């Protein structure tokens, strides 16, 4: 089957992510609400299958009336108020690290491909915001768009 140690180690490294993906997909398929929400999230440019699965796994969208209510609990950027590096913006360590990690690259993609997020990022850049601040703001914008898409569908 797997004769070399290198082949076995690659097999072991790949298995957990594939297994996790299958478990999440099976859970979404069993739950009618999640099964309905998953394709809606995928319609947002910048959010793919894995990102949609992560959002559905980490956030109970039904629990909140708006994206703002949920985002009050999370903080995605922190700006230094004193010291020698005042223009430095870092990702905040508060909030859900899995959401932060899972939306970092989708936010970059959305800033390039999603018309709404692209205009938003251009406006922030024009106002002199740092690249990290722009990414953090686009993460927040993507979450608001996701809430909007799911809330609009619920109101129909």
Q: In words, what does this structure look like?
A:
With about 160 residues, this protein is mainly α. The protein contains 7 helices and 2 strands; from the N terminus they run H-H-H-H-E-E-H-H-H. It has helices at about 5-30, 30-40, 50-60, 65-70, 95-115, 115-125, 130-155; strands spanning about 75-80, 90. A two-stranded antiparallel ribbon has the order 1-2.
Q: What is the terminal-to-terminal distance?
A: 53 Å
Give the number of helices: 7
Q: Supply Rg.
A: 18 Å
Query: SSE order, as H and E?
Result: HHHHEEHHH
Overall number of domains: 1
Percent range for β-strand residues: under 5%
Shape: globular
Summed over residues and divided by their number, the pLDDT gives a mean of 77
Strand order of the largest sheet: 1-2
Number of E-state strands: 2
* Most strands sheet: 2 strands, antiparallel
What structural class do the secondary elements suggest?
Answer: mainly alpha
Detail the topology: elements first, then pairings:
Blueprint (H helix, E strand, L loop, with lengths): L4 H26 L1 H11 L6 H10 L8 H5 L5 E3 L9 E3 L5 H17 L1 H12 L4 H25 L1
Antiparallel strand pairs: 1-2
Helix pairs in contact: 1-2, 1-3, 2-3, 3-5, 5-6, 5-7, 6-7
Summarize the model shown.
The protein is built from 7 helices and 2 strands, in the order ααααββααα. By secondary structure, it is mostly helical. It has one domain.
